[in-house]
Amino acid sequence: MQYGQQPPDLSTAEQPQLHNTVPFNSGGGGGSSGAAPRRLPREVQEQVNGMAKGLTQTQPGTVQLDCGKAVNNARWGLDTMLETGEKNTRDGYMSREQYESTAGKIRSTRSNITVGDCQSASGVKRDFYQCISNDRNHVMGCAEKHRF
Q1: Between the CA of residue 59 and those of 13, 55, 62, 109, what are the distances in Å?
Q2: pTM score
Q3: Is 21 helix (H, G, I), strand (E, B) or coil?
Q4: What is the pLDDT averaged over residues 30-47?
């Protein structure tokens, strides 16, 4: 699995709202110094954009719902996004304030993705958990496909 540049934007604590995304590295000052953010070379930015697009695609077909696997896969993806955002902040590609704002939403989402929530899920939320049960899908792709 890979990680994405667009973490979920979640506004409620009751259930993950993964459908609105805000790039970790969009605008804002770089690092903790408040300096202008570093810019990626054009070729690198194109690679980042391609990878981000790929992460929003899901594999065709369905796999059996496996709540343990779904929770592990979703949390792994969110943890990786947090780590990437932290690195981007350290390297000056985004401000500490921007990171903390987005990271707080990701942490909130992560805490709501549980085996119990999966087991009681129905409708689109169940579809999300079934999608992320597939090891080849990323949390961002499943969130975009199954908005709840």
Answers
A1: 28, 11, 8, 23
A2: 0.68
A3: strand
A4: 64
